[in-house]
Structure formats: C-alpha cells, structure tokens
C-alpha cells in the first residue's frame, strides 16, 4: 500500500523522523519551503534529520477549535535536541494530570486513513517516552 | 507652566469609545465618534490636521481612512491605512509621530477601530476542499489541515503555550491554572472602576476556573473579550504646541518614547511565536529614548490578550528581575494598590480588545491618569506610564508617556 505523510517534513522511511532544512551558512533550522534564511539571509540549505526523542517545553489542551477538529487535544512544543518542533501529544489522555512540562516524549506515527485511491495518510505526534512500544 | 520642548511630541487630544456591543454603529461611525471626540478634546478641528493614520483589520476592503474622511472632513491631506495585527493602533500612532518627527506636518490624527462583537475564535481552521484524495499543498506540502493535527495555531492555544513555556523555563512548581486565573481575577476586579469597559464584573477565582475551558490553562474569562470599539489620538509637535492656549498646553501629554519592533529570528520562533525578544527589544529602546527606567513608572497598560500573556510581559517589560514574573505578581505589585499597577483599565480580558483600537486605547488610559482625569480609578500622582501592545506575527509597540509639566 502506498503511504503519504501529512506534511513533507515527515519522512517515513527507513524509520519515521522529521526533516528540517538547515542553513549551510549559520545552521538555523526551518520546516517548510524556504526562500532564504531568516537568521542570516543565506540561500543554501541541507536536509537535517531531527532527533525523534524530545522534551515538552510548553503545552496547551485545546477544548475549543474550528469545526471538524476533534477536541480536546494536547498541542505541545517539543525540544528535540535543539530543534523546536510543534505537534500534538498522542497516546496519552488529554488532561493536565497526564501531561506536564518537562515530560520526555518520542515521535509516533499513526494512520489518518486511506483516500479514494487507496493511499494511506500518515500523521505524527509525540507520545510519552515511558509508553509501551506499540506492536 | 514650562514651555514644551520644541522637538518634543505630545498627545493633544485623545478619546476611546465605550467598548462593547454597538449593533447600530458601523466601523466608520465608531471611528468618526472617536476621531471627532479626540479633536474636540485637543481643541482643534479636522482642518488643522496634516496627516491621518487609520487602522482597521476586519472592516472589509477599501481604505478605512478615506471612508472616515468622507464623514468627518475631506481636506486632501495624506492618509495612511495601516495594519499590523493587534499592534495596528500603536502602528497608526507611531506613523503619525514619524510624520511629525520628519517635519512633514505638525499636527496629525491616529485612529483605530474594530467591530468584533460576536466574533469567535481568531485564526485556526481546517482546509475546506476535500476531493477525496490526499494531495500535498502549501509550504509544508500538507495533505490535510494542520491545525489540531500538528499542534495549534489558534490564539488562545498559542498564548497558552507561551505562558506555559515561561513557567517551564523558570522552573515553576506551583499550580499553573490557578496562577493564571488569579492574574485574570486581578484584571476583572480592576474593570469594575472602568465605565467604558466591555465587562465590569468582579469574578471569583472559582467563577474564572469553573468557566468554559478554551485552551488550558485559559478559560473564557481569561481570554480577551471580542467587542466593538474605537480610539483616536491627536498628536502635535512641541513647536506647534508652544503657540497654543494655556489649557491645551496644560493637558498635553508628552510622548517620551515611541517604539515599534518586529521579531528578530530566534530558534523555534517560526514554530511557536517568540513574543518575548521583540518586546524586550522594544522596552529597552523605549526606556533609552525616554531616559527613564521601569522603576520610574507609575502605571503600565500591557497586552494581556490572555491571562498567560500578562505574566511573560512583566518580565519582557523589565518590571521585575529576569525570571521573576511570578514573584512580581505574588508580591501584589501589579494590583492597583500595589507598587506598579498593571492594567488598571481591566485589560483586554475585561475592558475588551477591538483589535485595531487597542494600541490607542491603552495610550488613552495612561493619558487619563497622567492628566488626573481618571476619576474612580485614578492612580494618584501618576507622572509616567507605559503602554504596550503586541500583534502576533509579530509587531510590538511601546509608548512611554509623561504627565504635563506642572
């Protein structure tokens, strides 16, 4: 079955990870298509694999969102060895008793379902590092 | 009465409308009301103006400034229509100040207005089209809407994370929800003395924490109140002011610093907006321009678009030691009877946040106190005040104002 990541900076093979654009002049890292480096103006970028383990440095539990978005969900900012990443926290209850600042997390992917042509969309989030590894 | 500094900049007249619901007034009506009242407050007329800067985000296409002129006076002067997110009002004010400093004219009007009553969540939403196939689109090659799937970009969620990030960086070991709710409680208590505020009810901690959760730790009363409102300021050069009446000179408020910054790049700032660095930069520049320090301030109106935002700006505006925002709050300092009252107007959570008006309305609040005209909520003897706004994206405006010379 063909798979497609939710965003182009999620790399599925060989192991799922996030890929940043790293400015070759100053080392600043970005996600998404770039025109130039916002830190130094450089225009050369190289791919950089982002660490899949990280620490939650901020989070919120969103209870009120636009129509079509399932709530509540935990939105978090994760420090992955110096690269700041935004993601939902997954595989944990969305309440302040189960989510805390400084918690150790790791990248996790999940199926978003198949489209009309049988292509499976793959999403990502971060799960507690002490969660049992899914079979 | 001492003479105004020839190269100084002064607020000659200023006004804010009642914030709240104005179903029978449109954007131009509200803007006209504030503009005409600001001109009257300054003892001048539209014919005296050399420039207008007009701020509005949601009033629809077309130049709001020109639409305003068509109601209050088409005199042929240049109009700058400005937009800078929630810093739009401060940007309009700064634009007029720049024109006067550049010597293009010596009297100008800044006006900001928004109709937001009944508006819901600002920013965020799913992609609409769905033809049944995953198709990468946009700068991230996304196959689906990312808000809610890859974190959140809603305002309440973004600012919730900004507040939580501060607590993480400074190793807070208390209860975040209650801390932020108590900050909100302060501002709602302050609002009871402000007849122009949208909400003027004191709320208990239980009421605040028990209300609808929007984005933990921000419940509904901890979010800025969507409302309608306008504010306008007439700005004059010191040289022109010197030729004006004693009454005009007596009430003119000196703008001793006017600063606008954008966010310099910091790691992660394109993932979670860094509202801290540009605010610190603006504050530093403003204190330097004004020749005063945070210890000289008598009151501050800062951009508490959410309870979580107020905390970080205590630190960013250097009202406390670096990392000391929680201690600053716990000391009682930012309460109206404390050592440095913050948001005695009720702030955006209760006074309301008609986006483009906010950056002038907070200057109005400060001027009101410096002129000794704030009635029930007057901070006695106030001589120097600071007004701060931030527009996510980001733009930060800081103005420092000084009382008329006695």
How is this structure best described in words?
The complex is a heterodimer of chains A (about 140) and B (about 400). Chain A has strands at about 5, 10, 15-25, 30, 45-50, 55-60, 75-80, 85-90, 105-115, 120-130. Chain A is mostly beta strands. Chain A has a 6-stranded mixed sheet with strand order 1-10-9-6-7-8, with no helix packed on it. In chain A, strands 2, 3, 4 and 5 form a 4-stranded antiparallel sheet that branches. Chain B has about 400 residues and is an alpha/beta fold. In chain B, about 35% of the residues lie in helices and about 15% in strands. Chain B is built from 13 helices and 11 strands. In chain B, the strands form 2 sheets. Chain B has a 9-stranded mixed sheet with strand order 3-2-4-7-1-8-11-10-9, sandwiched between helices. In chain B, a hairpin with a 3-residue loop joins strand 10 (about 385-390) and strand 11. The longest helix of chain B is centred in the first third of the chain and has 16 residues, at about 25-40. Chain B starts with 8 loop residues before the first strand and ends with a strand. Mean pLDDT of chain B is about 95; it is low at about 125-130. At the A-B interface, strand 4, strand 6, strand 7, strand 8 and strand 10 of A face helix 4 and strand 5 of B.
Search tags:
heterodimer, A: 135 residues, mainly beta, four-stranded antiparallel sheet, 48% strand, B: 406 residues, alpha/beta, nine-stranded mixed sheet, globular
Q: Order the strands across the largest sheet of chain A as they lie in space.
A: 1-10-9-6-7-8
Beta percentage of chain A is: over 45%
Mean pLDDT of chain B: 95
Output the helix-strand order of chain B.
EHEHEHEHHHEEEHHEHEHHHHEE
How many helical elements of chain A?
Answer: 0
Low-confidence stretches of chain A: none
Number of strands of chain B: 11
Overall pLDDT of chain A:
94
Instruction: Please work out how many helical segments of chain B DSSP would assign.
Output: 13
Main sheet characteristics of chain A: 6 strands, mixed
Structural class based on helices, strands and sheet pairing of chain A? mainly beta
Q: Tell me the helix content of chain B.
A: 25-40%
Give me the oligomer status.
heterodimer
Q: Give the SSE string of chain A.
A: EEEEEEEEEE
Portion in strands of chain B: 15-25%
Rg of Cα set of chain A:
16 Å
For the CA atoms, what is the radius of gyration of chain B?
A: 21 Å
Order of the strands making up the biggest sheet of chain B:
3-2-4-7-1-8-11-10-9
The rounded distance between the terminal residues' Cα atoms of chain B is 6 Å
Biggest interface goes to: A-B, 52 and 47 residues
